[in-house]
Design brief:
Chain A has about 600 residues and is α+β, with helices and mostly antiparallel strands. Chain A has helices at about 15-40, 45-60, 65-80, 95-115, 125-140, 155-160, 165-170, 215-220, 220-230, 240-250, 275-285, 285-290, 330-345, 355-360, 435-445, 450-460, 465-470, 470-475, 485-490, 505-520, 525-545, 560-565, 585-590; strands at about 90-95, 115-125, 145-150, 200-215, 235-240, 255, 265, 310, 315-320, 370-375, 400-405, 420-425, 495, 580. Chain B folds into 2 domains: about 40-135 and about 235-275, 3-Layer(aba) Sandwich (D-Maltodextrin-Binding Protein, domain 2), CATH 3.40.190.10; about 140-235, D-Maltodextrin-Binding Protein, domain 2 (3-Layer(aba) Sandwich), CATH 3.40.190.10. In chain B, α1 runs parallel beside α7 (about 250-265) and α2 crosses α7 (about 250-265). The chains are: A alpha+beta (about 600), B alpha/beta (about 280).
Chain lengths: ~600, ~280
Amino acid sequence: MKVSVASVHFPAGSRIRIGRVMCKAVVYIAALFLVAVSFSSAEAGEANIDKTVARWVDFFTPSGLSKEDAAKELLWFHEAAKPFEGKEIRVAAEDIETHYWERDVLAQAFREITGIAVKFDVIPEGDIILNITEQMMTGRMIYDAYVNDADLIGTHTRLGKVVNLTEYMAGEGKPYTDPWLDLPDFLNLEFGQDYDGNQLQLPDQQFPILYWFRYDWFNDEETKRDFRKRYGYELGVPVNWSAYEDIAEFFTGRTMKNPNGSTVKAYGHLDYGKPSPSLGWRFTDAWLSVAGMGDKGLPNGRPVDEWGIRVEDRVPVGSMVERGGQLNGPAAVYGLTKYIEWMDKYAPPYAKNIEWSEFGPIPGEGAIAQTIYFCGTFASYPGYHKAGSPVCDSNGNPLWRVAPQPHGVYWEEGMKVGYQDAGSWTIPSNVRGKQRAMAWLFAQFCVSKTVSVKKFIIGGTPNRRSTVEHPYIMKNASRWGGLVEFYSSRDEKTFTGTGLNVPNYPALSGLWWEHIAAAVKGEYTPQQAMDTLAAEQDELMGSMKFTRYSPKLNPVMSKEYWLERPDGPKAKRPEREKPVTIAYDDILKGWGMR
Amino acid sequence: MAATTVMNDRSIRSVIRIMLLCAVICLPTAGYADGTDKTSVATGKTLRLCCPDEQWYPFLYNEDGVGKGMLVDIVKKACESAGFRVEIEIFPINRCLRMAEYEKADGIIGLPYDKKYATVVEYPSGSQSAAESVWRILQIDEVIITYRGSGYEYAGNSRTLPEPVRVLQGSPVTSELRQADLNVEELSTSRQLLSKLAHDKNGSVVTNTVSAEQYLKDESFSDSFDIDPVPLRSSSYYLAFSWKSELSREERAAIWHEVRRWRQSYAFMLKVFSQY
């Protein structure tokens, strides 16, 4: 069932991805080879452990710990793992740069320091979800640990089939819990907590969904003048969808120059629409709340969240408007309509035939002026920080920036501003005894203060506050095009995850992409797609049985009944509002930077 | 000369038939199945399937005389999308086998490969040797439960299992354990297995992981047992067809293909898992 990166059938753009992976692999292997040549006798043996640790401390510099403390932390791993020397664990994580590095470098370091071998599979996120679900539901022993998005926290809270790390750290796992773990230092630790604050998932890497644009093009005097002349306001970061549309229209077909000398016919928008699980999370990663569906409240709207699910006392009661939800309400239909319309009008023709993993590098190829969907993990692709790239200067400094996504007409102050999530270490409860202890040790190793700064430099996905505030990172913040500023800002807390409301993320998310794909293909109107999605989501939620917080559906009433209620869905609004833009430097000031 | 021509035509037809069969079996299903109902063989026939009467939640179980569980859900979906109506009856495994033998059932849901069964029912090709068959309905692990404090750790050698080894009657693991010269005790329900272990405070129980987890949560057994983290074995469970069923080879292959396709369907499987 697992689909490796190399075996996925990619259409256009596939070679870029595979080539990139191979390039990275060569770099990692070369780095490891150099380390190995210098320390060829670096087995986990006692005689060499100090040398082994010293070597890895050097390798992990810059680090969140002083060299002395980093050595102490690595020696602690060596001591704690002694009972398990020579054993093996299996873990899985999704196919992003951070996890390739964990597989190729951290697993090797862990083996040398602890004597524990880690078979680390990097597989598509859809397969992560299928495997962990199969393991939880059939008890089959597939992996000892997963890096599983905290999107599933509502599922884990209700199913009770993953290790409660809070209890584990206080009890059986105490001897294997890193004294330098420092949980308060983690960014958004709450993403992995149940209603009672128990840690079920430990963040490994975080990524927001942001707006991405060509800072150089947006500051080009001729371009700015032309835009002002045509639209009557300043070209800048769009605050609302009306401005985004204008900018998309303006750039589409316009001839633009890149700093590497190439000239392109630009596109004002990029998105992806190929039927695949990733099309589902294009929407479930809070797109509909960016449109304005749902209610005010953090981390998720109350009583209706960004999945359109109405929740009362932790119990989901419906997604259909007819049950008090909003998934087929005017705001949700508007969100889907604009997604399709923009892809038709302003995106390259191939956009409908690509999926998430193919989308990522494309803005870095120099023909895209802006995209409303940019996952933070994409920034680790070489095109975004390599000298000679169409979107970087001659030193490799990015000429692109990220900013909050603009909002649709239904969005109101007090709602979540955007989405971010944390790929988080998750140990199924059927992983027991020594296997559990080894999995926990490796998970902590991957998020340790010793390695976290280096990991961020490689993958651009932080897990600790001390990482984004590290002097080395602050000094070099411009390399990440605004990501560091974002993580350092107070606004970061208004970007939240899926949260606890979604009772079974794997099953429900599986419904989304099929319906959205039908709308993209024109088989359904947006209203039909959202009507059937909402009905099926309710039907599925209604059939779920959990020991706690199990969905209990409201009776079906007329749409009018709910639309007239003050806590009901927002009624249909005019879709065009006064376009508003903001200068990027003003966003940074708002984030407390510069 | 004419005879040679006929022979050649027959040979060609045979080759075409084999190629068609291979095409059905080997249709690529890389990536995610799209979850749509595609009818491979739209015969409209009714299949009579027997579901072993096991209390083996969530895989197979008897709910008010109706066979239910994940294995049933997947098989029903596969048969229906292959164009068959399905009638499922629930009986003890031995009766299911007799029904298959005497043409009262076209197939049995949820059988692991067993040489004895294979004389009565046909498994998909390669089932005999596959650790994880592509034609399985599901893969299910069996684990070892010991009395807490026994200190036993399974390291891959089944001969070391604490005796007596208690298993459910008819469990396919029994013959394997007996071949390892172990003292095997067969009991009729999972609860009896665990009660005996709790009472005798020695030996071990071999059962599937879901049952093991459930009993671990049972207050009457609280803190009595340890489940070994390393599975004793992992087996593929199949839809096996009676050798005497009127189903053609192409129809059998088409249904197995559908089982595989639906098991690989992201949305469908997540929906199945969410029901238990």
